[in-house]
Amino acid sequence: MRTRPVTTDILLAGRGLTKRYGDLVAVNDLTLEIRAGTCLGLLGPNGAGKSTTLEMLQGLRAPDAGEVRWRGMPLDNEFRLRHGTQFQSTALIDFQTTREMLELFAAFYPAPRKLDELIERLNLAPFLDHQAMKLSGGQRQRLLLALALVNDPEIVFLDEPTTGLDPQARRNLWDLVRDIKREGKTILLTTHYMEEAEYLCDELAIMDHGRVIATGTPQSLLRDHFGDTVVRLDACAAPLAHVAEACPHAGVFADGDHLFLATNDVARTLAQLGGAGIDLATLEVKPRTLEDLFLKLTGRALRE
Amino acid sequence: MKQTLRQFLALLAARNREFWRDRAALGWSLAFPVFVIVGLYFAFGEEERALFKVGIVDASPAQAAADPALTRFLALRHIEFITEPAGDDATRKVARHQLDLLLDPADPARGEATRYWVNTDSRNGYLLEQLLLGGTPATALHRQTMAGSEVRYVDWVIPGVIGMNMMFGCLWGVGYVIVRYRANGVLRRLRATPVSAVTFLSSQVVSRLLITLAITSLIFFPSWWLLGFRVEGSLVDLLVVTLAGALAMIAMGLVTATRTSSIEVSGGVLNFLTWPMMLLSGVWFSLEGADPWLQAVANLLPLTHFVDAARAIMIDGAGLAALWPHLAALAGMTAVFMAISAATFRWER
Fold first, then answer.
1. Are strands B52-57 and A155-159 parallel, antiparallel or unpaired?
2. Which CATH architecture has domain B52-146?
3. pLDDT tens digit string along B180-211?
4. Where are the CATH 3.30.70 domain residues in chain A?
5. Right CATH number for A10-223 from 3.30.1370.110, 3.40.50.300, 3.40.50.360, 3.40.630.30?
6. Which residues of chain B does A94 touch, with a Cβ-Cβ cutoff of 8 Å?
7. Which residues of B touch A (CB under 8 A)?
8. pTM, entire model
């Protein structure tokens, strides 16, 4: 999965980051480290504090407490030249073509990347002379990604890069992001798509209510928090307490509609459920997913 | 330094493209002053209007002039004489100021004296009455004459109309545009680049200065040809005053855009600034002789200084040397507004 050897270089680190908006604590004493050459995903539902965290790590929002370090030093002007960014909602200046936007952003940096190469790479040629305000969602995200790469940055911040895209455009953008990773760039992205996190990220930090509640590779997170398999029942099949009592070796959790049992011995769990006289008519056995993990950790679904 | 210049030029070009390609907005910023000027042309174009209207009951001016008491009065210029049928309609027109004076010439057959009606609440009526009754012996006073073509209202109002259009363009074109950029995230994106606030703001100011100059020229020269208004002074001086005025008003627009990301708030603030300038800066009527307090307020508005200076150049042929108080005021306002903007500007709310 990893295309570069694991290094222990911490490129960017936030320590004890806290941000309040009035009474709301958007980010609460959060610590995060991003190693060079890896892709770290901040995963969480809307309002978990992902975007605020990203903004603080980019130096766009001053934390109320805590500090951000770039290569061990506070963020400085050099950092502005060395990072690229794609915001969730960015309007471009009206009435500019794709090419003009690229040239504008290239003029901001002392050593921009060759535009022809970027155009080729992100497949911008089909709409190079179209007005940027009239692009489709997928084209627009590709242009925004190109703008984030125009200075050949060491680290790229992507805030929900595929939100609002159709599945094909999303898949297309994932491949582009993987390409960027292959170049050795460090990526920090936020997402609320589990698939996206699994596909792109070497490491995940799961956020909820302004805190990181779990970190690790997708595989280790699943291994540490789950048995091998998830068994699902309709919520009306039995009360949660009853199920938990019947299957002491399984991790039992629920959302509004279903009960879940994470287990590494399906046969035993099924036998225990049957033995307790629980109705198994609605039973399903599924492989574990990050969606289930999120539900287990936070008690709520990722997208609700 | 070289990098900053590149950033500045790229942003300048982008903003200029955005302006010229937005045909709807461009059309409006050209059409608005053209409407005003064409309206002025029809209102004040060719014919010279009489100053007073006098009705004569049942008689033509020639017939009435047979009356020796009226001969001199009926020969006066700048009075329009209208024959009115006898009756209440004619006197009602006097009561309503539609006629400044009504004459009923003597009928020799009936031996009646000539009668006239005047409205005691009418200023024109009062003056006409003095003319009708007057007759100071010419020997008592010594007459002097001045020659010179009249300053028509159109000559007087053109600098005001052009200044007003500049004001709208400068305030909205900078204030509103930057707030829109903040509201839709353009500023947020620029902030994550090495572009400094000063570079960005300079590009907006210079872009608007160029746009103002282009639009003002597009309005000035055709309407000069159409209306033939007076331009006594030098066009170069006019250009200097235009640049100074535009810069001061652009800087004023910047101040309104330093913080808010609400397009509604921005619109309110800009209206709050533009309306007083429309009324108090002498665009439509002179504030000479107005309340000193009002004049003091007017002198705090950049448009007042632009309009006064442009008027002095166009009507009186004044040179820049004579206009230094206006230029100094505009430069001072520019400096103050720019300083406030630089100190308070935020990329994001």
1. unpaired
2. 3-Layer(aba) Sandwich (3.40)
3. 999 999 999 999 999 999 999 999 999 999 99
4. 228-287
5. 3.40.50.300
6. 18, 21-22
7. 3, 6-7, 9-11, 13-15, 17-18, 21-22, 181, 184-186, 188-189, 191-195, 348
8. 0.79
